Amino acid sequence: MTEALQGLSGGFAAALTMTNLFWVIFGVVAGTTIGVLPGLGTPATIAILLPLSVNLEPATALIMMAGIYYGSKYGGSTTSILLNIPGEDASVVTAIDGYQMAKQGRAGPALGIAAIGSFVAGTVGLLGLTFLAPAVADLAVIFGPPEYTALMAVGLSMVVLLAGRSQIKAIIAGLGGFLLSTIGIDLFSGSTRFTMERIELANGVEFVALCIGLFAIAEVMVNVEAKTGRSLFQVPGRVRDLFPKRRDLVESAGAIGQGSIVGFFVGALPGAGSTVASFVSYTLAKRLSRHPEKYGKGSIAGVAAPEAANNSATAGSFVPLLTLGIPGSASTAIMLGALFVYGLQPGPRFFTENPDVVWPIIASMYIGNVVLVLLNLPMIPVFASILRIPYHILYPGIIVISVVGVYSLNTSLFDVWLLVIFGLLGYVMRKADFPTAPMVLAFVLGPLFERSLRRSLVISQGDPDIFVTRPWAVAFLVLAVLIFVVPALLRRRERAEPEPAPGEPSPNTPSQQEGEDADATDVVLDEKHEQ
Amino acid sequence: MRWVATFREADAVSGGILAVFGVFVLFQSLQLRFYIEGVPGPGFFPALLGIALMVTGVALVVTRLRTPRGTAEEFRLPGRHEAMRSLGLWVAVMAAALLVGSLGFLLTMFLLVAVILFVIERRRGLSSVITAIAVPLLVWLLFAELLQVRLPAGPFGS
C-alpha cells in the first residue's frame, strides 16, 4: 500500500512535466476522435503512431498510447447515443439505451452520464490498478482454460437476460451470432469454415461491420420506412436540460458503482476485454434493477452501466499487461510490442524493476481521465445539436459515414458488402421481433468459449471431468445454469398463478401500446409478454 | 393493400425457416471433422449449433401454434409504398457498395446521397443538391485528408 502510494506520487511528479502532459492531452484527444468516428480502430491508430513513439522516452510513448486507448473508449459512446452507430467495439451496448434516450430528447443527459460514469469508473479502475494489480494478477494466473470456458458459459447464458418478449427468439439470435463467429480459419486445425472460398472471410466476419449493419443501417431502414413527417429527435432548447439532473445521477449511481467493479475484474482477465465487460455490466444492472422493463427503452442506468464497465475494464486490462506481460487485446498487444522495442520486459518484477516507466504511465491515466471529462462535458451541447439536423439530411450522412468507417478498417470493399448484408439482416430481425443484442453478445463470446473449451479438452486429453474438478469452473458453470434456467422457471410459476381479474392486464396478453415503438426497439424487455 | 397476420403465424414461419436453416448448417458442418484425436474438431461447434437451431426453430413453431388464435400481437408486412422506401434505400446502398470500387468514393457517394434525396425522399430543391455535394465532400475531407484513410480512387482520382 505504502509502496504503491510512493510509486504513484513519483509517477505524478514525472507525468506532470510539460512533455508528458502534452502527450497525455495529445493521446486522449486523438483517442476521443478515433472513438467518435466509426471504423478507424484504436489498435490501428496506436500502430500508426508507433514509429513516432520510437523517438520518445519509453514512459512518454506509453503515456501517449494509453491515452489513445482509454480516450477512444470515452469517445465511442457519442455516436452510439446520437446515431446508433457504435463508434468503437465496446460502445455497442451503450447504443441499446443511449439511442432510445436520444429519440426521447434526452441525448444530453445520456452523453453526460456516459462522461461522468466513464470518469468515475475509469478512476475506480485506476485505483484498482494502483493498489490491487499484484493480487488480481495472481487471480488471472489461476484462471486456466477450464475456468475461462465456464466463465464464457456464464456470459453466453446472459443472452436470455437480453431477451425481448420472447426468450426463445433471444436464444435463436444468440445461436446465429455464435454461428457467424465460427466463419473463418479454425486456428486449432487450420481448416476453413463456411468461408465460401472468399479469402476475405479467412479472418472471420468483421465485428464492426456486423454491429454497424445490425444497429445503424437497420435503424435507418426502419426510420425511413415509417415516414411520419415529424422530426425523429427532440433536442431541448435549454442548456440545463442537456445535462444529467440529480435524479439521473441517483438513478445511475448503482450502475456506475457496479460497472466500475465488474469492468475492472473482467478487464483484468486477458482476452475478455471491455466489450465483454460492458455486456456483463449491462445485463447485471438490468437483473438487479427494480425496473428491468425500462431497459432497452431509454434507461439512463442502461447507459451508465456499460459505459462505466468499459472504461474501468481499460484500466483493468493494464493489470495482465504490466504484471504478467500478457496483452488482453490488440491495443495492449501493440503496447507490449512497444515495450519490447525499448528492451523492457513486463512481468511480475516489472513494477519493482522499472518504477520510472510504470508509475508515470499509471499517474498519467488519472490525469488523462480528468482531461477527458473536462473535454467531453462542455462538448455535449455541440454534439446534441447534431440531432437538430432534419432526418432526411442526417441519415444520408449516417450511411456515408457507416460505409467509410467500415471500409477504413481493413480498406476492404468486402467489409462494406458485409455491412449492407447485415443491415438487411438487422431490418428483417426487427420486423420479425428478434432482438439483435444477443446476436452481438454471442458473436463476441462464442470464439472465446470455443477456444477455451477445446484448449481445456486438449489439456485433459478429451476428458470432460476437467470442468467439474476445479472449484472456480464448477462455481461458474452452476451460475451459468442458474442464469439460464431461473427466468424460465419464474415465468412458468407466473403462468401457474390464477388468471387476473377482468380489467387487470394479463401476463400473457401482448402489449398493444408498444406498437410501432416496440418495432423500432431492439431490446424490448418485458418478459411477461412471452406469448 | 397490406398483408396482415399475427405474430403467431409470423413466428411459426420464422421458426420453420430457422429449423430448415439448422438442417443446412448441420449438413455443411458434417463436411468438417467433428473430433480430432479425442478433442473437438472444427466441425464440433458448427454441428452443435446447427442442431440447436433446428431444435429452437421447431420449438418456436410448436409454442406459437399452441397459442390460442387471436391473442398474439398483429404482424404487418410493410406496404408497397413503405417497402419502396426502406428496401429502395437498401438497394441504393448495395448498388453504391458494388460501384464504389470502380467509380471511386466521391462520385459514388454523391450519386447515393442524390438518389436518396431526389428519388426516395422526393426532395428536389437546391438544399438537396447542396447536401448531395457537401456530405460526401465533408466525409472525404475528414477521413481521406485529415485521417489519411485511403478511399477508393475511381477514374477521377478521388
Describe this entry's structure for a reader.
The complex is a heterodimer of chains A (531) and B (158). Helix content of chain A is 69%, strand content 1%. With 531 residues, chain A is an all-alpha fold. Chain A starts with a helix and ends in an 11-residue tail after the last helix. The relative contact order of chain A is 0.18. The C terminus of chain A is likely disordered. Chain B has 158 residues and is mainly α. Chain B has two domains: 73 residues; 67 residues, no CATH class. In chain B, the strands form two sheets. A two-stranded antiparallel sheet of chain B has the order 1-4. A two-stranded antiparallel ribbon of chain B has the order 2-3. Chains A and B meet through helix 9, helix 10, helix 17, helix 18 and helix 19 of A and helix 1, strand 3, helix 2, helix 3 and helix 4 of B.
Unreliably modeled segments of chain B = none
- Taken together, the total number of domains of chain A comes to 1
Number of extended strands of chain B: 4
- If strands are numbered along the chain, what order do they take across the biggest sheet of chain A? 1-2
Number of strands of chain A: 2
**Helix vs. strand class of chain B:** mainly alpha
Q: Spatial order of the strands in the main sheet of chain B?
A: 1-4
Helix content percent band of chain A: 55-70%
Radius of gyration of chain A: 23 Å
Count up the helices of chain A: 21
User: If interface size is counted as residues with C-beta under 8 Å from the partner's C-beta, which chains form the largest one?
Assistant: A-B, 65 and 74 residues
Please describe the biggest sheet of chain A, giving its number of strands, its sense, and whether it closes into a barrel. Answer: 2 strands, antiparallel
What's the SSE pattern of chain B? Answer: EHEEHEHHH
